[in-house]
Design brief:
The protein is an alpha/beta fold. It contains ten helices and 15 strands. The strands form four sheets. Strands 9-8-10-13-11-12 form a six-stranded mixed β-sheet, sandwiched between helices. Strands 2-3-4-5-6 form a five-stranded antiparallel β-sheet. Strands 1-7 form a two-stranded antiparallel ribbon. It binds zinc ion. The site of zinc ion has 5 residues, from loops.
Length: 379
């Protein structure tokens, strides 16, 4: 089958564009070099210890670990979509452009506003009714009861802080995942926070993790997670991360073990139209943690931390919206410039009367061959 050059443009465009933007800062480059990370953090150098790579500025710091998705953003563990590649010693280290953009725009850049709008939050206590969720290691506490108890406390705190608070449930009833997601749309939620508690076979497992949706085309943090394409929740990739980051940061400031902002394609994260996170507030399978979890002191502290994280997010939400709008406009313009260039390339190489249906020499039977003469655009 013969395929025209124009038929291949949709497939060539992302490759060419990605390569092009990898040459400079901006866009969705597939990989970024240390100098791009320096520009994001606002520093002029980096520190390589042999086991960790640090970019530090007076207000921001990023730490990476070779071959790992794990990084630290201002001391909080954040799991990237994909691990950096190469190594620092031979100057081949690079990280995914999409991850740098997410960390930079989604965490480092948003600034707090002096005043914030009244936002609507949908709080989702996990499980309920016949779906009890996990059971504590001593067999006396269900996840559904714990999540509801903490959710009520979070809601009360947020109400007194000027939020409009909605819940997916306020008592021990079963709510389907679809209903939870649809409720976010029905109540016009500005963001959604789902509360869960963890369980592991290893009784030593402990700490807090906050989940956000992986970016389109990437799997979750656990190895072997399914890779999915674009989901409704991917509209809010930046806001998901900002919300998850600030909640995790506040939860871990009170001596809790930081398991990180992780990524997983949970139903409620991929289907919810507004920014959404799912928090695993602790391990019911850990004797020490589950013992603490049944106390009012622990529940109050946990709720205060979540509410504080939500306030930290909310005050930066408008700033983030502005940054995302600028980024999307720049991406759109870069795409358009490259689309035009490809069209010009195709026109100049093909006889005018066959320009739309004859493949150029470099394209045979659907296989694109790079043209070494073409310089990709820079921005
Ligand atoms: Zn759960």
């Amino acid at each position: 089958m013969r395929v025209s050059f124009f038929h291949l443009i949709p497939f060539l465009l992302p490759l060419q564009l990605a390569f092009a933007q990898g040459m400079d800062v901006g866009g969705n480059a597939p990989f970024r070099l240390p100098r791009h990370v320096q520009a994001a953090v606002g520093c002029t150098n980096y520190l390589w210890t042999g086991s960790q790579l640090s970019f530090t500025h007076s207000t921001n710091s990023l730490v990476f670990y070779p071959g790992r998705k794990r990084c630290e953003v201002n001391g909080v563990t954040v799991w990237l979509n994909t691990e950096p590649t190469g190594n620092v010693n031979d100057a081949t280290w690079q990280m995914a452009g999409i991850d740098l953009d997410l960390v930079n725009i989604g965490i480092l850049k948003p600034v707090p506003a002096a005043k914030r709008r009244r936002l609507t939050v949908l709080i989702d206590p996990g499980h309920g009714g016949t779906d009890s969720g996990a059971l504590s290691c001593d067999g006396t506490m269900y996840e559904k009861d714990l999540t509801l108890a903490v959710a009520r406390r979070v809601g009360n705190l947020l109400s007194t802080n000027g939020f409009n608070v909605c819940y997916t449930r306020t008592n021990d009833v079963e709510v389907t995942l679809q209903d939870r997601v649809q409720r976010a749309t029905r109540v016009k939620a500005d963001f959604y926070v789902s509360l869960h508690a963890n369980h592991a076979n290893n009784p030593q497992a402990a700490g807090v993790e906050t989940y956000v949706l992986p970016s389109s085309g990437f799997g979750g943090t656990p190895d072997g997670s399914r890779i999915r394409g674009w989901q409704v929740g991917n509209r809010n990739d930046y806001a998901n991360l900002l919300l998850g980051y600030w909640i995790q940061r506040n939860l871990c400031s009170s001596q809790r073990i930081d398991r990180g902002v992780k990524r997983q394609s949970y139903y409620v994260l991929r289907g919810t139209a507004c920014p959404a996170v799912l928090i695993e507030i602790g391990f019911l399978s850990n004797p020490t943690e589950s013992g603490a979890m049944r106390t009012a002191v622990w529940r109050n502290t946990c709720a205060r931390s979540i509410a504080a994280g939500i306030c930290d997010y909310a005050v930066r939400a408008d700033s983030l919206s502005g940054l995302v709008a600028v980024k999307r406009k720049a991406d759109q313009e870069a795409n358009e410039r490259w689309r035009k260039k490809l069209a010009e390339m195709a026109k100049s190489k093909l006889p005018a009367d066959t320009a739309t249906n004859t493949p150029p020499a470099a394209v045979k039977d659907g296989t694109a061959v790079d043209d070494p003469e073409e310089e990709p655009p820079t921005h």
